[in-house]
Amino acid sequence: MATLPYYSNCIFFFPTSVQDSLPLLPLALLNISFHVSDTFANISWIARNEPRDSQLYVAYMNNREGTWRISEPVNTSQSSHVIDGLEPGAAYTVRLIAKHLLDNASVFEDVIQTQVKGEEQSQRRGI
């Protein structure tokens, strides 16, 4: 099944520590985008000014259930993360959370909607 792109062209800065003895440096995530299918979403970004060990968490919640799930730390140099096992036709709140922030503040938050199986094929045929 094809995925539908969703783009957010924003710059988000959050501090990250290169080494314990160095001051916090700003990290920018650019062109954060989603490709959403019926059971998965691929989140991608471009990281600028990032140390190789910069990490973040991807947190997501099915808005009907209200339970947050949080990924293992994701290295920002990976430039993407896949959330799988999503429910078709459901709305999810997705957050990117800086690993080194003391208060675990979100650096990005958005709501995505998964597709319903067969919906895209019906739309292509004009049904």
TrEMBL record:
Residues 26-106 form the Fibronectin type-III domain. InterPro entries: FN3_dom, FN3_sf, Ig-like_fold. This is Neural cell adhesion molecule L1-like protein. It comes from Merluccius polli.
